[in-house]
Amino acid sequence: MSFIPTSQQRYMRACMVCSIVRTYNQFKTSGCPNCESFLELTSNDEAIQECTSQVFEGLLTVSDTKRSWVARHQRLEGYVPGVYAVQVEGILPDEVVVAAENAGVHYIPRDGSNSVSEALPTDA
Amino acid sequence: MSARDLHSGSESEDENFNPEPMVDEDDIPNTGNSRRKPSADDENDEEDEDQGAAPRRQQIDDEEDEDEGPGGDEEDEEDEEDDEDEDDEDVVQRPHKRRKKTRRNQFLDVEAEVDDEDEEEELEGDEEPAEEVHPDDLLEPTGADLDDRRHRELDMKRQVEAQKDAEQIAKELDEKYRRREMQRAQKAAAGAVPLSLPTVNDPLIWAVKCRPGKEREVIMAITKRIDDALSAGRPVGIYSAFERGGTMTGYIYVESDAKQDMVSMIEAIPNVFMGQAQIAIEVKERPDLLRKRKRIQLEEGKFVRMLRPPLYRGDLAKVVEVHANGLDCTVQLVPRLDYGLNEDVNAGPDGNKRKRGGFGRKGERPPPKLFNEAEAKKRHMKHLNMTGSGGSRHITYKGEDYQNGFLLKEVKINHVTNTNVNPKMEEMQLFATVSVDGTETLDLVAVQAAQKAAQSGSAFASGDNIEIYDGEQKGVRGTTVSVTGDIVTLRVTEGDLRGRRIEAPVKTLRKLFRDGDHVKVIGGSKYIDEVGMVTKIKDDKVTLLCDSTQQEITVFSRDLKRAADSATVGNDSDFNLYDLVNVDAATVGCVIKVDREVLRVLDQNGDVRTLLHSQLAPNVNKHRSAVATDRDGSEIRVDDTVKEHGGEGRQGRVLYIYRGHLYVQNRELVENAGIFVVRSTNVTTMAAKSGRAQAAGPDLSKMNPGVQQAGANGNAMPPPRTMGRDKLIGKTVTIRKGPHKGLLGIVKDTNGDEARVELHTKNKQVNIKKELLTVKDPITGNSMDFGGKFPSRSRGGGYTGASPSYSGGKTPGWGNSSRGGPSWGTPAGGRTPGWGGGRTPGWSNDGSRTAYGGDGSRTAYGGDGSRTAYGGDGSRTAYGGATAYGGNDGSRTAYGGFNSGGRTPGGPSWGSAPSNSKSSNNLSAPTPSAYNNAPTPAAYSAPTPGAYGAYSAPTPGGPPMDAPTPGNFSAPTPGDTAQHPTPRGYGGYGGGYGATPAAAPTPGAWAETPWGGGPETPAPSGMDEDPRYD
């Protein structure tokens, strides 16, 4: 269940790797459904602080990450259905990036800093 | 890209033409090979030359790789690596295979690849038989080099393959690629794959209106419905829904195949406005919906504006630290604290105020002020916590940190904004850093950075010569035709494109100047409005030589404009050169330089300070009438020329007088714009603008009544004008005449000859002529004489109208005096002499012309008593007619007039004259001499005006009247003189003679100065005896 009641929405955080949005407690109890193998967020406050961000923009709920173009555009293909963020601010610690690469995940920041490929003339 | 490059050019071209279908093919491996075959065939046709009858698997492989290529993304490193690995192996293996099986160029290679791949993917060993079969079949018979033969072989191979069980192949493929696909999905999810562009085959995206601000709630509601549907096993209908908060307020976007699916999914969700039609977003616009906005990086030392908390919304803050996670930063703020002043004292300690607190802040937020420890201690000592000392003093107040008066606050980066910061100077000033020596310095560089205006099209005006310095059209030069937003249309003036009109974004443009151009800075830097000549151009930085300062400055070319006019400096300042400004409560300064951002100010201590415009209060009130005295006691007024005494001996014109400091301007001086500050006591007056007598002391002619009178020459003088506040105001008076006769009141105001009297009896104010008033002592109820205010009531009638006060004053005095009788009776007594002697002469002198009975003895005081008649004769000289005072009556107190001729002899002559009366002797001696001397300049020079005051002061009449004011002296009217001596003072005392003695003091005073005199004795004596009423 990816629904987050309004009262909990203030605790929402987004995973900096996959951009999934969950509350702090959800991350703490069950970790990140997509990146848990290398982020190991469960019961790890520090990791949650480091690898998830409260600063994100654009809430995106996906029911089918394969068929949805939006999900593909957001590089969410293959991830679990749920709520994601369009843009996540924050800088993933280097060692986490390395861990992700080792796990076969090519990490591209989701904060818009790497928007070269989608750069359009008016992009400010 | 590189992956694509590995393959034939034709193929990649093909893809470039229509990349979108390739995206589609992503799905094909899953759906089966029915579609794949034709496509493979197509490609084979093209590849015949190169690859000929490559096994299909290889082709599929290629496709697989190409699939990742459509977006043309180079990030695909892993895949590249894979491919390269494979290719490397190919390369390694090729010679080997060639050796083994000659003449099988391409096909062999390809097959070898397949083999390699099979080796790689050991799990798929089941494919090997099949694989090995066709190559062998195909290749064994070959051996000919002829092309057509190979073609035939290829055809054969294709046939064989086509005949193969399609299902089996599909299965093989599926198995083979599922893993890779999964892997790839994961990579893709993490961004390994370029952002895919939407195609017409993708689901539609609908824009749905919703209540602004509720976008996230709506998305969550949709999420809930999706969850429900998924868990219930129902079809979901929509693939995704998203919102873009701040950028697209009031809309959410839903991705679904059909509108009906979308509508059924979102309808009846609160805050979704289904009333308005949903808009389908066009394919090419879809990526824009998901565009990420690159956040401008916060940097330490930069200024930002606060968005939250509400208390500081909109406030300027300085970034102190950006935390490593990039999410938080520490900012420096000017705190807004009320230190508990507005605390609700009634709120319980349990904070039940919270309930009432409600939303939003009540009332005004406190103004931003640096943290004040003392204030905080007043009420919130318990919240205060201090560590460190000196500059590193750290205060924790109510859980927040303060340092150097600033609030250090940790905020999330999305609670601040660095766009449109535009700090004002006043705000910036609070952030001025206080250095060790206590001087405030402002980091102007930071200011400038913060104020750096975003470049917009407004910097370009039509006609500007511009150059495109970035992008594909770099180097194109032209003239601006028009500017629309951030797009500039230019007409190319050079090169191949000459004459063409092209458009370019502002940020790729720079203005083109040439050395020697005369340009004006129109914005973007502190040099705004500076005008100068271009001396150097480097990139888009232009160095110019300022016309005004002859300094070289470097600015961005976009901030320049070709200009013909010359510089106007500091036209936006509130201050002008040579303005007198308030630096602080105790300091003023004179502006000696107006710069764009700072003023240089010469303060009263002679120090030059550099101050921001905003640090100065508006101009000091200029007291044009301010007067100072120089070291000789001469008065100095604005515009006088003074010379410094000692020192450098500078001289100049007085610009301002401020509390004994003179701001003097000398245009010949270079430093401080020709302004210097001196103490007024340190200069001598050179020349007064007004032509006042200078350097010789006060204007004697004005002060010497005698001289004045000479000029007046017996004419009736106008009544003396009292300057300043009317002395009558506040006095207790009775009304002597009219409907209010006899009533007591207090003078509240006067106007001309009328007084406004507040009556004690009625609470009423009435206007009464001053002459109808009698001043009363509020305590004793006695009448007091009051000079100048009363009509002439001279008994003797000897007085001219010009000296009304005289008689007026006297009358009551006389009348009231308790000792009236005796004193009258004994004019010759001790007092009288005082009177007659000291005073009279003095008097008569003064008034010889007019006041005291020019007509002779009968007049004056003596009038009634006849005893003491003073009358100057009509002696023309101020100082005593030869026989000015003769007692007509023959009273003993007859005073001989002075010797007019001998000022000096006056003494003697006098002495002789009055000699008969003993008392007069005393008196006379001083008086004449006093007078005699008086006229001599020396006498005058010595006494300061104060001396005159003294002169008048001693006269009993003086105090109540305006005696002390120099005005008396300056007023040449006899009436004036009359005032001083006014015997009414005496009258007041009672002793008629007292009155006379009263006069005595005057001469005494006079005497004092010239003689240092014993002679005044009479006067004092007279004084002493007189009862004083004040």
TrEMBL record, chain A:
GO terms for molecular function: RNA polymerase II complex binding; zinc ion binding. Signal peptide: none annotated. Residues 12-89 form the Spt4/RpoE2 zinc finger domain. It is found in: Chromosome, Centromere; Nucleus. CDD domains: Spt4. InterPro entries: RPABC4/Spt4, Spt4, Spt4/RpoE2_Znf, Spt4_sf. Gene3D superfamilies: 3.30.40.210. It holds the Pfam family Spt4. The keyword Secreted does not apply. GO terms for biological process: regulation of DNA-templated transcription; transcription elongation-coupled chromatin remodeling. It comes from the Eukaryota. The SPT4-SPT5 complex mediates both activation and inhibition of transcription elongation, and plays a role in pre-mRNA processing. This complex seems to be important for the stability of the RNA polymerase II elongation machinery on the chromatin template but not for the inherent ability of this machinery to translocate down the gene. Belongs to the SPT4 family. This is Transcription elongation factor SPT4.
UniProtKB/TrEMBL annotation, chain B:
It is found in: Nucleus. GO terms for cellular component: DSIF complex. Residues 800-974 form the Spt5 C-terminal domain. The keyword Transcription applies. Residues 1-148, 342-369, 779-873, 896-930, 951-1030 are annotated as: Disordered. Its main location: nucleus. GO terms for molecular function: mRNA binding. Residues 297-325, 459-486, 512-540, 635-660, 726-753 form the KOW domain. Belongs to the SPT5 family. Component of the SPT4-SPT5 complex. Interacts with RNA polymerase II. This is Transcription elongation factor SPT5. It comes from Zopfia rhizophila CBS 207.26.
